[in-house]
Each structure stands twice: as C-alpha cells, then as structure tokens.
Write a structure and sequence with these properties.
single chain, 163 residues, alpha+beta, Alpha-Beta Plaits, 2 domains, four-stranded antiparallel sheet, 4 helices, 28% helix
Length: 163
C-alpha cells in the first residue's frame, strides 16, 4: 500500500541527506519526494510517498521523528487530503500528429509550453492517476522525455501540518 507522509523539518543544509540516509539504512524505498520552503522560511516541508504495510509506515514515522532536525511527522490520509503532481512531457510531434496531441492536451486541461519542428512539451498537473493516464495516451506518439515532481499534499479544511 502507498502512504503519504508530511515531514516538517528545519530549513538547514544536510537535512535531506540525513532523511535519505535513514531510508537507505533501513532499506525503505522512497517512491517520491518533494521538498520546499513553508510559509515560515525557517522550515521546509517534505512530502514523501512510500510503499509498505502498516508496520513499515509506523517504523518510518518513528525513525523520522527521532532525527534531530525533524519538527513534525504526519501521515496524510488520501480521503482527507488534496494531492497533486506536476509533469512535463516532451513528445514527438510532426505536422500530422499535432492536432491529435492538442486534443489530448485539452481533454486533460494540460498546457503546451513549447513547440518545435519535431516535438512538443506538455505541462500537466493533477493526481497520480491523471498524470499516468495522459502519459499512456501520449506514448503512441513517442515520448522523448518526462520530468515529474512527485506528490505534494495538503490536508483539507482547517487542520494544518505545521511546526
């Protein structure tokens, strides 16, 4: 099962290395990792997704909570959270295929952000399933390159994950 964890950490050099090292030492695999400053520049927020059962999740949370620069660790329930990912996709696009690609882009409410003679770059945001679906449809044209941000997530409503 996939789990999403929000980790509030001190915004200091080396924190990401310590967290990645913890996962490596414990043989936990990070499926995605997204890091950025919070509303308070002294803190950063990490959104980490991991696969595993409940025991693996509990172990990850306990181990993260022990790290010195970690302020708070929370599991984010998908039913109570908003989750998004950004992807940019470079796809082969000749004259014959451009209109079909543009139709797919419109259906997914994505954007064409670059066009050249032989390719297009598409920007799309949404949940993981939406990103996977547009990637699957664009494969028929030949995907040259994909860059994905990994998941960012926030709890719905008034509840917040803060330091």
């Amino acid at each position: 099962m996939k789990h999403t964890i929000a980790v509030i950490v001190e915004n200091k050099a080396g924190v990401l290395t310590r967290i990645a090292g913890l996962f490596s030492r414990r043989s936990f695999n990070i499926d995605s990792l997204s890091v950025g400053a919070t509303e308070n520049p002294d803190y950063s927020r990490m959104t980490i997704t991991v696969h595993g059962d409940r025991d693996v999740l509990e172990q990850v949370i306990k181990q993260l909570s022990k790290l010195i620069n970690v302020i708070r660790v929370s599991e984010l329930d998908p039913s109570e959270s908003i989750e998004r990912e950004l992807a940019i996709i470079k796809v082969n696009a000749d004259k014959e295929s451009r209109s079909e690609i543009m139709q797919i882009v419109n259906i997914f409410r994505a954007k064409i952000i670059d066009v050249s003679h032989r390719s297009m770059i598409i920007e799309v945001t949404g949940d993981e399933e939406k990103i996977d679906a547009i990637v699957q449809l664009l494969r028929q044209f030949g995907i040259k390159e994909i860059a994905r941000t990994g998941k960012v997530s926030m709890v719905r409503g008034a509840r917040v994950v803060k330091a």
